[in-house]
Amino acid sequence: MREKVLLIGLSTGGPAHINHLFSRIKKLNAHIIIAQHMKAEVIDFFVNDLQSSFEFEFISTPAVLSTSKKRVVICGKSAVISNVSTFQIDLENSKNIGRYTPDIDQLFLSAVPLCKNFDVYASLMTGIGDDGARGLFELKKNGAVTIAESEESAPVFGMPRCAIENSAVTHIFSLDEMISFFAYEGLIDV
């Protein structure tokens, strides 16, 4: 059985979504890597706030993930996956800073090699603009399960809309439907 990895990209409205997601999770069965648009100076505060609110281990990049211990990575700057093996995923902060911080497209595009060794799920949630749509499309082409948040639950529907319009998604779910889907697929226990 292959290990599972969940990638999540968010912008405006994202911190509330992240809190809602983790308030529903009882156990992690997959690594979760989150790119939430925010200033780099705020990332450590955000990670510490999540760590004090939930029982999972939250870390920021750079990070090394092994298959033995499931953790949540909050990407700093423009994090990319720099090395992938069957048992390890290395994330680093890229020197190539994109339009957004962190840049969801950079993360998603760097995650394409994960599809060879892992079952990859990638979700694009609330946010303004088009960040993440191109990377989500490439992940879908390489066998990842790709998800966009529905307009019903997205405070800002820009990024999910762009992904849907560009045929980058295999599923469209509200936030609560997405959480149920993650549980059904075995990424989390609720």
Annotation keywords:
single chain, 190 residues, alpha/beta, Rossmann fold, seven-stranded parallel β-sheet, three-stranded antiparallel β-sheet, 31% helix, globular
How does the overall form come out from the CA principal axes?
Answer: globular
CATH class: Alpha Beta
User: Separation of termini?
Assistant: 21 Å
Largest sheet descriptor: 7 strands, parallel
SS field, number of helical segments: 6
Return residue spans where pLDDT drops below 50 for at least 5 consecutive residues: none
| Rg from alpha-carbon coordinates | 15 Å
What is the H-and-E element order? EHEEHEEEEEHEHEHEHE
* Average pLDDT: 94
CATH architecture: 3-Layer(aba) Sandwich
Which strands sit side by side, in order, in the main sheet? 4-6-3-1-9-10-11
State the secondary-structure class. alpha/beta
CATH topology: Rossmann fold
- Looking at CATH, the homologous superfamily is Methylesterase CheB, C-terminal domain
β-strand percent reads 25-35%
Helix content: 25-40%
- The number of distinct structural domains comes to 1
Quantity of strands, as a count: 12
